[in-house]
Amino acid sequence: MLNVDLHCHSNISDGLLNPSEVVTRAKFNGVDILALTDHDDISGVNTAKKIAIDLGLRYVTGVEISVTWAQQIVHIIGLKIDVTNIALIKGLATIRDVRKRRAYDIAKQLLGVGIPNALEGALKYVTNFNLISRVHFARYLVEIGQCINVQEVFRDYLSPGKPGGDIQCQWICLSDAINWIHGAGGIAILAHPGRYKYTQLEFDALFNEFKQYGGIGIEVITGSHTPAQYEEYARVAQYFGFLVSVGSDFHCPNESRIDLGKLPKLPISLKPVWYNWY
Ligand code: AMP
Ligand code: MN
Ligand code: MN
Ligand code: MN
Fold first, then answer.
1. What distance in angstroms lies between residue 171's CA and the mean position of ligand 2's atoms?
2. Minimal CA–CA distance to 164: which of 134, 132, 143, 131?
3. Is the overall model pTM greater than 0.85, yes or no?
4. Could you report the per-residue pLDDT of 222-240, keeping only the tens digit for each?
5. For residue 217, how far is its CA from the centre of ligand 4 (angstroms)?
6. Residue 47 CA: distances (Å) to CA of 7, 206, 227
7. Would the CB of 135 count as within 6 Å of ligand 1?
8. Is the beta carbon of 150 within 6 A of some atom in ligand 1?
């Protein structure tokens, strides 16, 4: 059975390893098919692809796009995208601008609870000056001893209702994300549905709308799901007729639940997104 990992991050977004290190680690961990899916940025793809080819890994281009749907963040994975597609490149740049504006608001809210210079602190962790993430703030809050780890930061700060997290932030709409992916020749996958805090009615509407716009798959096995959620979203995939995707959502050794290529096997009753790739 192929070892497939179609969701992970490098320091082009909020991971810690550079794209070449991510691919090398994936190879070491036994991955056969890999996609690097940085948030809202595809500038790591060419390096990753080159190293993958050198190491004899099958490589799939990818990105994870930040969307607002029913007032919450939803992540859409685009796979098999043409990374020279101008509409996609320009669209992702607009999201990174939203990230920059949000970073000022996060820093202001943290200042309000007595944490000064958070933007400067977060920027120390940003290697790609085009993209700033809440994770960069989280690493800085750990550095100054505000919390003991990144998970604790997201529990106490940066999340809705918490300092640094109550920010009216409009990402792009679901149809735009899917259209950009399709315009670049790719396929759209709904990332880690188990992370969203929707009602059952909202979830059904999300799955239906995603499908209506041409989304073809959902993540079932992901570092963001519990084993119970693997089963729950396997049922959702079968009910809605989605293909299933798998990805560690690896960011770095200490912060991620699952390492690259260390995912549980996909049940054979499910149809994977890569069923017709090779
Ligand atoms: P952003 O895209 O800047 O809003 O940041 C979202 C990122 O924060 C996610 O992609 C994860 O990498 C990270 N994240 C979100 N929630 C948590 C959490 N509870 N614990 C650790 N990391 C988290
Ligand atoms: Mn992330
Ligand atoms: Mn995500
Ligand atoms: Mn991710």
1. 15
2. 134
3. yes
4. 999 999 999 999 999 999 9
5. 16
6. 16, 34, 33
7. yes
8. yes
